[in-house]
Design a protein that fits this description.
Layout: E1 28-34, H1 43-48, E2 53-60, E3 64-65, H2 69-78, E4 82-88, H3 96-105, E5 120-122, H4 137-155, E6 160-163, H5 165-172, E7 184-187, E8 205-209, E9 217-222, H6 225-233
Helix pairs in contact: 3-4
Length: 234
Amino acid sequence: MKLSLAPLLSTLAFAIAAPASLEERASSVQGFDISHYQGTVDFKAAYSSGARFVIIKATEGTTYKDPGFSDHYDGATAAKLIRGGYHFAHPDSGSGTTQANFFLANGGGWTSDGITLPGMLDIEYNPSGATCYGLSASSMVSWISDFVSTYHSKTGRYPLIYSTNDWWTTCTGNTSKFSSTCPLVLARYGSSPGTIPGGWPYQTIWQNADSYTYGGDSDKFNGDLAGLQKLAKG
C-alpha cells in the first residue's frame, strides 16, 4: 500500500489464505484497499461500479490503531461489500506474535459470516529505516511465521500476505514457506502482475494501481465472485 508516516508509518499492500489446491482463473473481481490517509471513500458508488471487496487498514506495529477503521468498516458493510482488515507490520518493534494479537484485538479478526475476509499482513518496505527492518532473511521468515501461526491458532484461518516481488525476494530470501497456506496479495502497478515470488503459483489479489476512482488503491481478485465469497466464508 502507499507508504506514509503515522505513529511510524502507514499503508497497505496484500495476500489470501489459499485452499489446498489452487487454480488460476481468467476472470477477476474489482476491489480496493484503504486507510485513513485516503480521506473520503464512496463505498456505495464503488459497489455500483462493480467493486465487491475492500481491505481496510486496522493497525500498525504494536500500538497504532487507524482512526478511520471503524467508519470505513461500517461504510463498507452498509454498501454490502465483502471486507476485511489489514495490519502494517513493523518487524523491528515487536514480535510477530505480539503484532498478530494486537491486530486481532483491534479489527483484524475473522468470522464465517461470508462477508469477512481473513486479515491481511502487510509486510513491505520500511518507510522510515532499513528496507528489511534490520532483520536477516531467516529472522524475517521466523517473524512472519510467528504472526501467521498466531493468527491461524486464534481464527482457524491463515492471513493474506501482502508484499512485492522485490521486497519478498530481498528480505525473506524468496522463501516459499507460506505459499501453500497464505494467499498472496501482490503489489505491482502495471498491465500485469509480473513475477510471482515465494513459490506462490499466482497471486490471489493483485494491487494493480495506487489509485481508485472511489478511494484508495485498486485491487483485483484473481477469480470470480463465487471464489471471492469462498475465500470469505472459509
